[in-house]
């Protein structure tokens, strides 16, 4: 179990880290070249595309991972799942592109949404391939493909910035990178696994959708409270503020990369143990929570302290208003890590309807908070709305785990982990506060090194060994 989970963490960690950092670097370049307003237009379109992408996938790949991990015979039905993904992706393209043609007569915006529609369609199909390899716990294929895809997107994006620096050509670069990656993935699958063809299986689709709809709607809610702030800022006519807000949001999002691959890495192992071995399940889930705490808490504290330097180094002077937004948003990092761990356990326990209600409360609450706070405080109101939403979500998710899963959320070992994380983070904050004026990379190295050493020492004193085991 440990070797499989560790292997998955390493592969997905490498894939997510490298690919997302490549995209993060591209977005920094896009912001610097296009300026606040141009970047705001791009971010507005990408936020809407993110919402459509989640609707198109509708939780079906995750259902395949859960069920195929428990019964490998389901792999034979993969062509039917892939066909469903194809239809879903094409539907998303039609909806996104068609809506743009009805809502605006501006050619540049129509092209922006058309190209993002192509990106959404291809990414939907790719996610079904990734799900197949996740169910087999062969994450190396996904890791390699995501790095390749990010490289292609960055290459096309840089070419667009050099030749025709406009938001819609950057969107075209996203679509082109995704298409090339899909062709590459299909070739790998054909050679390494089995040849496939399109297959229509209405009974399987009906069964899958009946299982997936709570998860699908939940993820729609999740993307609503993650992306609706940018959409609402744009709807209020604050396109420049969308640029500032997304400059901060992307930095906070970079700190969330480990949360993504941690959840995916633990999911198959949790699925296999959810009812068969409660003791093993508890130990595995505690390791996921520990990883969430030991990464999320120092990221939030350290990020708050170095936020001014981060914004000034990454962006131009016109992005200065993003500093305070980042200092608010960075606290969602620790909360998101913990919400992700709780959501994974609820999912494998078959309690996705509980997660649906929680996400629905978060989405509706976030929209209402944005309606109240954005007119008064603009992008800072949107940031506070996101932070409050995640705080409420964590409380509700923790209560749901306690009630509807076999796991215990308060244990002696987790209490000791809390002490180790809090103590190490406190020492790190003190060191950063007393550190002289040094270049940002050195400051981050000092803070991170201090935290790792202190956490290891405190944990070894409390639990007998310094790291997750």
Describe the structure in your own words.
By secondary structure, this protein is mostly helical. The chain contains 15 helices and no strands. The protein has helices spanning 2-57, 60-70, 78-103, 107-135, 140-163, 167-192, 202-235, 239-255, 257-273, 278-314, 322-329, 331-348, 352-404, 412-434, 440-463. The longest helix has 56 residues, at 2-57.
Protein traits:
469 residues, mainly alpha, 15 helices
Strand residues, percent: under 5%
Number of DSSP E strands:
0
Helix and strand string, N-terminal first?
Answer: HHHHHHHHHHHHHHH
Whole-number mean pLDDT: 82
CA radius of gyration = 22 Å
How far apart the termini lie comes to 12 Å
Unreliable stretches covering 5 or more consecutive residues: none
* Number of helical regions: 15
Total of domains: 2
- Quaternary state of this entry equals single chain
Shape: globular
Main beta sheet, described? none
What is the structural class?
A: mainly alpha
Helix content: over 70%
Secondary structure elements and their pairing?
Blueprint: H1 2-57, H2 60-70, H3 78-103, H4 107-135, H5 140-163, H6 167-192, H7 202-235, H8 239-255, H9 257-273, H10 278-314, H11 322-329, H12 331-348, H13 352-404, H14 412-434, H15 440-463
In short:
This protein has 469 residues and is mainly alpha-helical.
């Amino acid at each position: 179990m440990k070797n499989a989970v560790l292997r998955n963490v390493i592969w997905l960690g490498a894939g997510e880290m490298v690919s997302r950092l490549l995209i993060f670097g591209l977005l920094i370049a896009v912001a610097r070249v296009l300026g606040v307003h141009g970047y705001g237009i791009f971010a507005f379109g990408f936020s809407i595309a993110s919402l459509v992408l989640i609707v198109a996938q509708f939780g079906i790949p995750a259902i395949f991972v859960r069920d195929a991990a428990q019964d490998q015979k389901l792999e034979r039905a993969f062509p039917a799942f892939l066909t469903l993904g194809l239809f879903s992706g094409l539907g998303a393209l039609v909806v996104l592109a068609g809506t743009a043609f009805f809502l605006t007569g501006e050619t540049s915006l129509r092209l922006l949404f058309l190209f993002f529609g192509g990106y959404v369609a291809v990414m939907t199909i790719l996610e079904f391939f990734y799900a197949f390899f996740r169910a087999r716990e062969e994450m190396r294929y996904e890791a390699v493909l995501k790095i390749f895809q990010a490289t292609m997107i960055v290459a096309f994006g840089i070419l667009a910035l050099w030749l025709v620096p406009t938001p819609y050509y950057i969107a075209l670069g996203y679509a082109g990178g995704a298409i090339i990656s899909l062709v590459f993935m299909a070739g790998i699958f054909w050679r390494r696994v089995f040849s496939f063809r399109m297959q229509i299986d209405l009974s399987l689709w009906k069964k899958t959708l009946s299982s997936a709809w709570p998860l699908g709607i939940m993820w729609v809610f999740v993307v609503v409270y993650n992306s609706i702030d940018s959409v609402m800022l744009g709807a209020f006519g604050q396109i420049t503020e969308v640029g500032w807000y997304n400059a901060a949001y992307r930095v906070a999002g970079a700190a969330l990369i480990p949360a993504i691959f941690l959840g995916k890495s633990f999911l198959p192992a949790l699925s296999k143990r959810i009812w068969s071995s409660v003791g093993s399940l508890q130990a595995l889930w505690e390791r996921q929570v520990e990883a969430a705490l030991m990464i999320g808490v120092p990221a939030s504290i350290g990020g708050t302290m170095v936020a001014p330097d981060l914004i000034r180094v990454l962006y131009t002077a016109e992005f200065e208003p993003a500093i305070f937004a980042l200092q608010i948003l960075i606290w969602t990092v620790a909360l998101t890590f913990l919400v992700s761990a709780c959501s994974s356990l609820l999912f494998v326990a078959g309690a996705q309807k509980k997660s649906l209600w929680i996400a629905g409360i978060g989405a509706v609450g976030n929209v209402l908070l944005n309606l109240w706070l954005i007119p008064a405080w603009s992008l800072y109101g949107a940031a506070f709305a996101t932070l409050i939403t995640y705080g409420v979500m964590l409380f509700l998710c923790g209560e749901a785990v306690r009630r509807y899963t076999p796991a215990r959320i308060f244990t002696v070992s987790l209490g000791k982990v809390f002490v180790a994380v809090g103590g190490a983070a406190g020492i790190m904050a003190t060191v950063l506060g007393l550190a002289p004026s040094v270049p940002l990379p050195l400051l981050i190295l000092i803070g991170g090194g201090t935290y790792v050493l202190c956490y290891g020492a405190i944990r070894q004193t409390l639990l007998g060994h310094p790291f997750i085991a």
